[in-house]
Amino acid sequence: MPGFELFDQREIDAVADVLRRRIVHRYSFQGVRNDIYKVEEFEGACARKFGARHALGVSSGSAALYVALKACGIGPGDEVITTPFTFIASVEAILECGAIPVLGEIDESLNLDPNCVEDLVSERTRAVMPVHMFGASADMDAFKRVCDDYGLMLFEDACQAMGATYKGRYCGSMGLWGTFSLDPYKIVTVGEGGMVLTSDQELYHRMEYYHDHGHVHDKSIDRGAERKACLGFNFRMSEIQGALGLVGLDKLDTAIGMLRSTRDRVLSEVRDLGLKTRVLPDPEGELATQIVFLLPDGESARRFQRAAKEAGFGCGILSDNTWHYARHWDTLRDGKVYSRVRCPYDCHHADHVPSYRPVEWPVTHSILERAAVFGLDIVMDDARVEALIGAIRAGAKAL
Ligand SMILES: Cc1ncc(COP(=O)(O)O)c(C=O)c1O
């Protein structure tokens, strides 16, 4: 799946061009940069491609979540409803704000189940943040309805879903904001990087200020003379990342096309086995970075996994995934942070911090323990695709 599979001379030239011009900072140096701003170009290209009014490049997907949450004023005393099946960063970003992540249950799309939101809403709930896992959109119409009913903000963690769509709209462009990760495992990578999309101009400016120490950016004056809008921090993207991102974005549709064509070939070759895949609200829009089979139960999933591995292709069972499933996050359960006051764990604004015990997500567990996953690479030769097909056949035989 990683975008670096498609790296070629274009990435080398893009980075070399930045280095040759010696301007690696996205801001300042107006006198010598000939009006060339690579991060700004990348932001503009992302906003246009994904249908948002604004895009802000930042230093990682985690930073994108954190900057966006902070700009919305999420802080101590607030709750954000999200999913127990996501990369831990989604939850860490909420905790870093001093707010409480309230983790619902997933459905067979492997995304947060919109039907669980209503029961989790309290007077402290400010927002709902579905995560488009494995490049497939959550049911955004249903989330929009429930957020409108309860007056909640709707955020999108689209870190795994750059280029995925839901009913023709791009993931990341449907909520108040949406984030992408550009880390080394993603379909577009710049090494480390992230992007926030929003169509709310005021919110965009807050993010822009916050991610750069509160700078009110103004190209007509020296950076040192710029006004301060707020206290912030440094989550800036560099020009090297911006230049790489522009090339990666240009290759995104090709990468998605290659992944989908491998998925289609594999699924058509194993159709006779009658295996169930995950149930997506808009199957047309998924990236196809993974193929997931939902097997009858946990035991048969183990047999499937063993046989697939023996046949020569790696297969995971999602309930084993220690970084993406809250059941395994003892750091979250134990509130392992280094500060003396452990907000939100023993913060006086937070009276009801969930205990995050492993038994808390029975529905999620019943789905993940029978979910067998195969990761797809963008570039897969015939032999490898055949090996995958053989592994699925072997797995199915062992059910
Ligand atoms: C769903 C999700 N959210 C957030 C992140 C964090 O992104 P990054 O690794 O760029 O910080 C990731 C990264 O894998 C992710 O998968």
From TrEMBL:
The domain of life is Bacteria
- Cross-referenced InterPro entries: DegT/StrS_aminotransferase (IPR000653), PyrdxlP-dep_Trfase (IPR015424), PyrdxlP-dep_Trfase_major (IPR015421), PyrdxlP-dep_Trfase_small (IPR015422)
Q: Which UniProt keywords apply?
A: Aminotransferase, Pyridoxal phosphate, Transferase
**Is Transferase set as a keyword in this record?**
yes
User: Which of the seven top EC classes does this enzyme belong to?
Assistant: transferase
- One Pfam annotation reads DegT_DnrJ_EryC1
Which protein is depicted? Glutamine--scyllo-inositol transaminase
